[in-house]
Amino acid sequence: MATTDLIMTLGKVIIAAAWVDGKVTPDEINSLKDLTFRLPEMTAHQWAVLEMYMETPVGEAERARLVAELQQNIKSAADRQLVMKALNELVAADGEVTPEEQQVVREIEADIGSGAGVGGFSRFVNGLLAKRSQALDGAPNREEHFEDYIKNKVYYNLHQRLNLDDADLDIPDAELRKLCLAGGIMAQIARISQTITEAEFDVMVQALQSGWGLTPGEAAFVVEVAASDESRALDHLRLAREFVKVCTPDESTRFLDVLFAVAAADGEASSAEIEQIRKIAAELLLPNKVFIQAKKKIPRKNRQQ
Q1: N or C terminus: fewer CB in 10 A for the chain?
Q2: Could you tell me the pLDDT band of residue 295, with boundaries at 50, 70 and 90?
């Protein structure tokens, strides 16, 4: 079975396990989206299918069918290893792995081999949803822009500064949201060297001008907010997930060129910067070959790998 198909089946089982008690709250759905978005080898189309799958309950019969389908499609040691690797990465995604989580993963591995039901998966998913919810508990509730704060902190910061400075940007709201997401992702690369240099700042401004047609002032304003101290605690996963929703695959592909331009702005793209771009490319659901093509556009002398 193709890797992406096997991971797709695993994603459906994870969603089915979340619905085992017949209900999933809106906050849990958001966290469930975060979990499944982390699954490897996922295409944008498959992610859209999984996202749709979360909107309605999964009944007992369908849940049993999905678990059986997963078990039947694990036909080799490599398939089994792929599934367990994906589950272990989900457990480790939000910090330290507890002994209890390790035990649940071992139970799931045993369940897959024995043909058992969804019990282990339910414990696994419920634990991860609780963990993800706890990770987001520190986000302040600012009524009007609460969802923006969670989904796109840069956009939230931009609104706050607009309100404080009585400034105005003549950009449609949907386009502004996309720009702020892009700024937040670019800042991840620029901050790897601890400080955002003048050259990196200028490259981000130029990228916004050439890629989205902003004026120099508008682009500088967005980058200033993206690079601000208030934006350091960005939820990188939510940034990527929201960016995928508002960009076409072609836009995401071209955005990798922007990230490499930021990485090489000081003369050389470091190994740490390149690895972060590799991670971002995966989070944007882009194939590894697309990442490699973008990397090779930077001359070999100007990158560490």
Answers
A1: C
A2: very high
The tokens for 57 are: 């309950």
CB 158, CB 222: distance < 8 Å: yes
- Specify whether the CB–CB gap between 63 and 19 falls below 8 A: yes
- Find out whether 128 and 90 touch, Cβ atoms under 8 Å: yes
Q: Is the pLDDT of residue 145 over 70?
A: no
DSSP conformation letters of 185-253: HHHHHHGGGSS--HHHHHHHHHHHHHHH---HHHHHHHHHHHTSGGGTT--HHHHHHHHHHHS-HHHHH
Angle at 149 between CA 148 and CA 150, to 5 degrees: 90
Cα separation, 256 vs 294, in Å, equals 6
Domains of the chain (ranges plus CATH)? 3-136 (1.10.3680), 143-302 (1.10.3680)
Instruction: Report the 10 Å Cβ neighbour count for 22.
Output: 9
